[in-house]
Design goal:
By secondary structure, the chain is an alpha+beta fold. It contains three helices and five strands. The longest helix is centred in the middle third of the chain and has 26 residues. The chain starts with a helix and ends in an 11-residue tail after the last strand. This is NfeD family protein.
Length: 152
């Protein structure tokens, strides 16, 4: 029976390498724990119980720890996420007369923009990109820039 647990453990190890999600690794460890158990007892229910208990305890206790430890928290934002926090220049005022939509130039590209808090922002003002909603930038005026009154 130990040979079966060895094959199962190796299969889970190969699957974990292919999947790399810190999920199947625990079943691999459980299979090897059952392999060791099979050297001491020939009882299949005990071996299966060891496999299930070890696998699920490790799955519940260590998966989150490993995934957060090896996640890329400091990864560089790519594509659209890289725009958040950048500064842009308002080309077309964002006012109620334009339905709250204006245009902002950012890195040489012109984007439609709305404000985060329904304020009006004059043409030429510097804005900070807070988020992206669909194809529109959501902006707030830069602190030292003048902007019009709040509209509801």
């Amino acid at each position: 029976m130990w040979l079966l647990w060895l094959v199962i453990g190796i299969a889970f190890a190969i699957a974990e390498i292919a999947y790399s999600g810190f999920f199947l690794m625990w079943f691999c460890v459980g299979a090897f724990a059952s392999l060791i158990t099979s050297l001491f007892t020939s009882s299949i229910p005990i071996q299966l119980g060891v496999f299930l208990i070890v696998s699920f305890i490790l799955l519940i206790t260590l998966t989150k720890r490993f995934t957060t430890q090896f996640s890329h928290k400091n990864s560089i934002p790519t594509n659209i996420d890289a725009l958040i926090g950048k500064k842009g220049i308002v080309l077309e005022a964002i006012t109620s007369s334009t339905c709250g939509v204006g245009q902002v130039k950012l890195d040489g590209e012109i984007w439609s923009a709305i404000t985060l808090d329904n304020t009006s922002i004059e043409k030429g003002a510097t804005v900070i990109i807070e988020e992206i909603r669909g194809v529109r930038l959501v902006v707030t005026p830069k602190k030292d820039e003048a902007y019009l009154s709040k509209e509801s």
